[in-house]
Structure formats: C-alpha cells, structure tokens
Design a protein that fits this description.
Elements: E1 2-4, E2 7-9, E3 15-18, H1 24-32, H2 37-40, H3 49-60, E4 64-70, E5 76-86, H4 89-92, E6 94-103, H5 112-126, E7 131-133, H6 141-149
C-alpha cells in the first residue's frame, strides 16, 4: 500500500490463467450476477450440464481463451473470454473479441477491470490480432463509458438475430 495525499493506493496483485472445469461454477455465478445476466443465465447447484458442455467446447478450441483472474491468495475474482477470429479481410487478419468480462461483486471499483483489459489487449497483440473488439448492451451506460475511457471507439452499429 502506498499513501497518496489523503487517499490510499493499493497495489493489486493478480494472476491470469486459463480456466479449468473446477472454475466453471464461479464463472457462471459472476456472469449471472448483474441485471441482464440474471434474466438469461441459470446459476444453480449443481450447475446445469449445458455450461459444462460449453466449457468443453471452448477448452478444445485453440482460438478460444476462457480466462480467470485470481487475487494474491488464489481466489477467483474475475473472468473474461477472448476469441480469435481469422478472416480474409485485412490481408487475412485476426481480430480478437472480448466477451463476458466480469468481476466478483465484492471486488468491483478498485481497478481490476482496467487491469484485465490491459492484459487482454496485450494478449491480443501477442496473438497477432490487428484489433480487439467488444459489444455491450446499450442498457449499460456505465460499461460504455468505461470502455470509451480505455480507448474503445463506437465504430459500427451492431445487429443481432435471436433464435
């Protein structure tokens, strides 16, 4: 800890690692723990099998990285998923997509999200992506402001067709 004026600055020690099957329950709990997640997720114990099947598919795909973030005492405090999408445009470029960024409720507001995005940006660069993209629901103005503060620009109009 470092004192800066009247404020206390806390140095965060975080470990980023690939998620394991044992992490799935805490990941789903974090994904379900917001206004929109509560309406579309089904967090319960035992966890519904569709989540375990999805994890197996993600884990088997070399272009998917489901990541957990641990505190210095090895508690899972955050998660994100990176997808690396190969395409022909941009001279056969790769774009990285970041999804399902979540921080455990009791750890929000201390800079973990910003650190997670810095890590994800560096990881996308390591994988030779030419851009990192994300989508966010228009009902999340605080999230939109957070992403803009990180340097993300609103560049396209997103559209979805739900089945």
């Amino acid at each position: 800890m470092q004192s800066v004026g009247n404020k206390l600055k806390i140095k965060l020690i975080m470990n980023f690692r690939k998620a394991t099957k044992e992490d799935i329950s805490i990941i789903v709990e974090m994904i379900a723990d917001d206004e929109l997640g509560k309406t579309r997720e089904n967090f319960q114990t035992p966890l519904p099998n569709e989540y375990l099947k999805a994890f197996e598919n993600i884990d088997a795909d070399q272009n998917q990285e489901l990541i957990v973030v641990e505190s210095d005492n090895s508690e899972v405090i955050g998660t994100l998923q990176l997808s690396f999408i190969q395409y022909l445009t941009y001279r056969g470029g790769i774009r990285a997509q970041i999804e399902a960024v979540r921080i455990r409720e009791d750890k929000r507001g201390v800079g973990i999200g910003k650190t997670m995005f810095k890590w994800a940006i560096q990881r996308a660069i390591e994988r030779n992506a030419h851009l990192l993209q994300l989508t966010t629901d228009k009902k999340r103005p605080k999230a939109i402001k957070f992403y803009e503060d990180l340097g993300f620009k609103q560049s396209h109009e997103g559209m979805k067709l739900h089945f």
